[in-house]
Amino acid sequence: MVEFQVNSPTRECLVDITHQIQNAVTTACPPEFSGLVHVYVPHTTAAVTVNEGADPDVARDIIFALARMVPRDAGYRHGEGNADAHVKAALLGADLSVPVVDGHLKLGMWQSIFFADFDGPRRRRVWVEFIGALPSGMRA
Amino acid sequence: MVEFQVNSPTRECLVDITHQIQNAVTTACPPEFSGLVHVYVPHTTAAVTVNEGADPDVARDIIFALARMVPRDAGYRHGEGNADAHVKAALLGADLSVPVVDGHLKLGMWQSIFFADFDGPRRRRVWVEFIGALPSGMRA
Amino acid sequence: MVEFQVNSPTRECLVDITHQIQNAVTTACPPEFSGLVHVYVPHTTAAVTVNEGADPDVARDIIFALARMVPRDAGYRHGEGNADAHVKAALLGADLSVPVVDGHLKLGMWQSIFFADFDGPRRRRVWVEFIGALPSGMRA
Q1: What is the CA radius of gyration of chain A?
Q2: Interface confidence (ipTM) of the complex
Q3: The predicted structure's pLDDT at residue C139
Q4: Distant-in-sequence, close-in-space partners of C42: CB < 8 Å, separation ≥ 6
């Protein structure tokens, strides 16, 4: 497992971590590695997601739409003032697996991997694990 | 990795791809393969999800409920008119892993695997990878 | 694969299953096992999620916020009166993978794994599979 840190600049933001994930694969795996990279967020008010990285407005729209769906104040019970952040983290999810082929992330043309913070700004952590595909020799 | 294509018939729809996923497993893996099949959508306005396949009204209700939660026009910044589709894709997620036992998908009785398009109709792609379970011989 | 059961006490609830997942790892894997544990819910009106376990109000707020986003009655087509539960299950997702290091779940400090029921009370099932990480010896 590889761990790296993310500094989220604002309370609610999507931070592109594609480059850090590729770095983790390059550092930890042999060049011929193919399989999955598992990305895990060990926090309860943050998440990981894949979406368009080319136009930064898409990330802002995701934050905006989630804020519309899950208002910051809506009669929640949790006393820390961040109940909305827990709900948003549940909606996007704490883990994600992305294909790797010959040591390179295999993403769609417009896809980036984002760390999503809903209760920043903070120093956050991301855990990365590497899972081999069924070897070709074992295939039908 | 196996790739196949999906033709989504309308802008927003769930297309049952259970059969194509099973075909990918049958074609690429030995009959005794057990582990996970990883299903990945390399698009930013589409997703993959598991839900009821028996009554097609369930798929329609999911599309309907998402449209209610994420209106098509709500003051988004992204200029392509499909910001709602990016948000819905983030909510359902781009990847999923389903158990495989002895070469067969192991789904719940009512479960099907769906490709979810929110910005069709289009020809889309799905990437499938195969991950072996910890061999029994290595178990405690 | 290991299967265990969960009794959900009410229609909509989050049940902490961290202990059962750890038990599955301890029972099925050698003490030095490192990789991922895959948690799968074979139902279409239930899900699995990771969030704060320390304050039970967080789980209640997640249920509350989902009920606000996806009303029980909103003109759905599905005739069984549980269309909202299918939608909520799609939002949280049927599967999740969590890191394991040396036989122990590696969760964030405040994280628990929850079975989420949206159409209980019922006896439900959870499927657990074990996926080895790329062995250190194969690493760069």
Answers
A1: 17
A2: 0.96
A3: 67
A4: B106, B107, B108, B109, B111, C94, C125, C127
Angstrom distance (rounded) from CA B2 to CA B45: 21
C87-124 in b/e burial notation, b at 16+ Cβ within 10 A?
Answer: bbbbbbbbbbbbbbeeeebbbbebbbbbbbbbbbeeeb
CA-closest candidate to residue B51, choices C66, C119, C37, C68: C119
* C17: its two tokens: 């299953």
> What is the identity of the amino acid at B21?
I
Interface of A with C (CB under 8 A): 1, 26-31, 33, 35, 38, 40-44, 69-70, 74-79, 83-84, 86-87, 89-91, 93-95, 97, 127, 129-132
Closest by CA to B119, choosing from B54, B64, B43, B33, is B43
Q: Is the pTM of this model over 0.90?
A: yes
Measure A106 CA to nearest chain C CA, in Å.
Answer: 18
Domains for chain C: give ranges and CATH numbers: 2-133 (2.60.120.460)
